[in-house]
Amino acid sequence: MANGENQNPNPNPIEATPGAAARTITLKTADGEIFEVEEAVAMEFGTVKSFFEDDAVSATKPMPLPNVSGSALSRVITYCRRSLEIRSMIPPATSEDATAAEAVQGEGDLEAEKAAKQERKEFEAEFLKDESNEDVKELILAANYLNIKELLDFLCRSVALRIQNKSVEYARKFFGIEGDYTPEEEAQIRQEYAWAFEGVDED
Amino acid sequence: MKTTTTMRELLPDDVVEDILGHLPVKSLTRFRCVSKSCESIITDHTFVTKHLKLNLNQFESLMSTNTNSGYLLYTTKDKNSSPSSKQLCTVVCNNDRTLSQVSRFEMPSFFDKCDIVGFCNGLFCLADYDLSHIIYLWNPSIRMFKKLLATIFTDKYAKSVIGLAYNSQNNDFKILRLVSFLGGQEVEAEIYSLSTDSWRKVVISMESLRGYEPKFGTIADTDPTCIFLNGALHTVAITSRHHFILSFDANDESFREIMLPPNHLDGVPVNFAELAVFKGCLAVFVFVHGRRDILCHIWVMEEYGVAESWTRKYLVARNWVSGGYFFGCTDNGELLIKNSTGPVSIDPESQNQNILAIEDADWMGFTANSMESLILLDGGK
Asked: 20 to 30 A from B378, CA-CA: which of A34, B233, B298, B316?
């Protein structure tokens, strides 16, 4: 059964009553957890999308995700689901061809876009609030493996915010990088760019 | 189980680069110390360009949120620090008209003999006022500058006009230098490109601008201000029979002629006329001696490049004395002036003078975006 023909005709991919007319795709994580995900959400994952486009594979067979844990996938699904919801708040014409559409964009569209931006801002602020650095890195690896550009971009921005005021040692630990400057070389850098080392958070 | 602890800790190189791309320049400068590979990522030209573009895009997407009315830049001598030196200060213009400090950068002492002739996307251009062939590019956010040497002219009365432009297609910065001579011979023009770190001379003839020879003579003089708008630099060019606005497109390096407002100088005892940006439009400010006051005629080109769209707006400025200096406009269309009261902004509609709550300034500028970048990191000092 080819995917394309059975596209859900409803423009809003999230059904009010789960499992009603929405097709689902089954995913199996590295730790053996099974997830049934709405097709629209699963298609946000570049890896899943190409898997089903390349192969006329039955959607009911679980797709293995050997590099993703159950907890990470759960968070990823939550993000993509919410992201789709927010994107559906904006009328379709404006998302793609921005320059032409902007010229005819009405008041209502601008309001909707503003509201969507605000929703996204609030949602993103909450999403990683209680996640540790290790959890965030796991999410990044999952988003990278699953090829979800929007999520990956969001996670990178969030990490940048987390580490921007931290020390060199903190950054080394976070990225798992060994410092390879000699003590003299490092002292020279610290002296030459002393201004960049001021006001840094305590480790 | 395929996940191992090493996989859980290490992020792939391209992801690390993406994260670094979102960091402010102070963090990036500090993180050069993290490792040699980090240093080479951060100082790589492609990364520098990517970081600049990211900052520009971020600014653009913030534009609609109206959290402030722009940024006022100014230079001042800090009397409290010793040895006293000039500082470049940035304050944000809050929507309630208060000013809040954003940054303060020490200027290298040799900038004392320089004028700021342009700034664009976080990069400043300064010219030595004695030695007109010495030009500096300065990125205060990373405390780096680059000294450029333009053509030296033996005529000691040679006057240099310089403009700094940003080429958005190649993420390159360009400088246009126009040198005019007391004897009235043809202006010498040269263009500098940061990406190639080289100058090239150009000849700007009326024939090349018009496609035919209008017999106005050569461009013999230009006005001292050179403003950057809509991707091009603009200055007033003067031939023996014709004044016009010369524009220089930063992307394709082409020159164009734009008509000045018709008869804008007729019958007025002109003090001086200057180009500036007024609410996003090209504008000519003509300062005229009235009987008691100094009047300012503001001509605005409502539709860029369309000569018929020149419209005159008008203000009478009461509290001026000679020695008042005009530094361009804010995004709200207020004139930035330094007069006997000090640094002020004047609203041409209400004609109110608003005293700026900053210490004394010897130069002021206004920008919609307070940008920082790594430009010059891979080539400056």
From this structure: B233
Question: Which has the closest alpha carbon to A76: A16, A21, A35?
Answer: A35
CA dist A66 and B265 (Å) reads 76
Measured over all CA atoms, what is the biggest interatomic distance in chain B, rounded to whole angstroms? 89
Contact B275, B282 (CB under 8 A): yes
Q: Amino acid identity, residue A199?
A: G
As a whole number of angstroms, the distance between CA B7 and CA A183 comes to 29
**B35 reaches A (C-beta below 8 A):** yes
**How far from the centroid of its chain's Cα atoms is residue A51's Cα?**
19
Q: Please count the other Cβ atoms lying within 10 Å of the Cβ belonging to residue B360.
A: 11
A175/B34 CB distance under 8 A? yes
Coil vs helix vs strand at B26: helix
Is B30 at the interface with chain A, CB within 8 A? yes
pLDDT of residue B56: 87
Enter the tokens of residue A194.
């002393």
- For the record, the structure tokens of A186 come out as 């490092």
User: Residue B64: what residue type?
Assistant: S
Q: With a threshold of 0.85, tell me whether the complex ipTM lies above it.
A: no
Chain A positions touching B30 (Cβ under 8 A) are 167-168, 193, 196-197, 200
How large is the C-alpha radius of gyration of chain A?
22
Average pLDDT over residues B90-112: 90
Please give the model's pTM, rounded to 2 decimal places: 0.85
Contact call for B30 and A200, based on CB within 8 A: yes
Q: How far apart are CA B347 and CA B369, in angstroms?
A: 21
How does DSSP classify residue B246? E
Query: Could you tell me if B121 and B364 are in contact, meaning their C-beta atoms sit under 8 angstroms apart?
Result: no
Label residue B63 left, alpha or beta by phi (over 0 means left) and psi (-120 to 50 means alpha). Answer: alpha
In chain A, whose CA is at the least distance from the CA of B144? A193
**Residue A15 scores a pLDDT above 60:** no
**Candidate from A137, A153, A195 with C-beta closest to B143:** A195
Give the pLDDT confidence of A73-110 residue by residue, as tens digits: 999 999 999 999 998 888 776 445 555 555 555 667 77
Cα distance between residue B315 and residue A26, in whole Å = 71
Residue A68 φ/ψ, nearest 5 degrees:
-125, 135
Helix (H) or strand (E) holding A158: helix A149-163
Burial (CB count within 10 angstroms: exposed 0-12, middle 13-18, buried 19+), residue B73:
buried
How many CB atoms lie under 10 A from the CB of residue A47?
A: 16
B2 lies within 8 A of chain A by CB: yes
